[in-house]
Amino acid sequence: MGIKSDLGSLNWQIELGADEAISDQPQDRLSQAQTSQAEMVAKKSVVYSQASQENPQIESPLFGSPQKASLRTAAENHTVDTVFSAKNLEELRGSLEAFEGCALKKTATNLVFGDGNPDSDLMFVGEAPGADEDRQGKPFVGVSGRLLDTMLSYIGRDRTKFYITNHIYWRPPGNRTPAAAEVAACLPFIRRHIELINPRFLVFVGGAAAKALLERTEGINKLRGQWFAYKTPGLAESIPATAIFHPAYLLRQPAHKRLAWRDLLMLKQRLVS
User: Fold this and answer.
1) What is the Cα–Cα distance from 245 to 31, expressed in whole angstroms?
2) Largest CA distance in the chain
């Protein structure tokens, strides 16, 4: 009798539309879908970049055949086709300004593209713009940026002698951590950005940038103090890359400045070698 009652209750719930089990914790299905889509676009972009290096006439594989290319969204068109066809920084900036595939663009005041000398042999890639950067449209111009400039002055570098950008191009609201979908949406752009600068040395400022572009899972404490080989299909040779503490972190943890100084001395030695 109890079993029939339970089955009757289940059938009644199914008729009302409750036909899917849920977990104990709420699931953000929209965020998961956005993350999956952005990661798919980023992965397809890498495949397309590699293939296009071998055959410039190759069609974008995002939707398979050329007949299906018209089904691509505007965001996918810019990510796959425009980014890797950018021949200079102006074209890459234009593709970012036209890009609608990152939600951060809707809440930010300005695109924060880059600053410094693009012909330098040294390139820094940080995490995401803050409030000062969002207002001015330049990376690392706030308190942490001034600390970074001071640190680099001790090894003889200023913004005429290095180039700097972020791997996220728009400020996250409230300086929150960028979502996985937002990181994935910006990855094709920052990869092409590095390819166009093609520096002799690459420095990731903070753990987020290092993990995203080196595809590592370790935190900044384990990534700093060593060298990695950064390589993408658009680079003829790999670029020696290292990671340093973000200056915002050093402002919160001043005891780690001694480790940051060691990292700068390691960088200085490599620059003059």
Assistant:
1) 29
2) 85
Q: What is the pLDDT of residues 146-182, one digit of tens each?
A: 999 999 999 999 999 999 999 999 999 999 999 999 9
Instruction: Give the helix/strand (H/E) hosting 245.
Output: none
Quote the pTM value: 0.74
CA-based torsion, 164, 193, 119, 269: positive or negative: positive
Q: Provide the token pair at 159.
A: 């913004």
* Residue tagged 């404490």 (tokens): 221
DSSP summary character for residue 234: T
- List CB contacts of 156: < 8 A, sequence separation 6 or more: 268
Task: Please list the alpha-helical segments (H only) found in 116-214.
Answer: 131-136, 143-153, 180-197, 207-214
Give the span between the Cα atoms of 246 and 130, in whole angstroms. 13
Work out the mean pLDDT of the chain and round it to a whole number: 82
For residue 147, the model assigns a pLDDT of 97
CA dist., res. 31 & res. 35, Å (int): 6
Q: Can you tell me the distance from the alpha carbon of 158 to that of 163, in angstroms, rounded to the nearest whole number?
A: 9
| Alpha carbons 209 and 212: distance in angstroms, whole number | 5
Instruction: Report the alpha-carbon distance of residue 4 to residue 215 in Å, rounded.
Output: 54
Strands 201-205, 239-244: parallel, antiparallel or unpaired by DSSP?
Answer: parallel
Residue 209 phi, psi dihedral angles, 5° rounding: -65, -40
- Each residue's pLDDT tens digit, 48-97: 444 444 444 434 333 333 433 444 455 555 455 678 889 999 999 999 99
Checking if the pLDDT of 129 tops 90, the result is: yes
- The amino acid at residue 113 is F
Q: Which helix (H) or strand (E) holds 113?
A: none
Output DSSP code: residue 79: I
Residue tagged 């803050």 (tokens): 130
Question: What is the arithmetic mean of pLDDT over 136-141?
Answer: 97
Is residue 117 within 8 Å of residue 161, measured between CB atoms?
A: yes
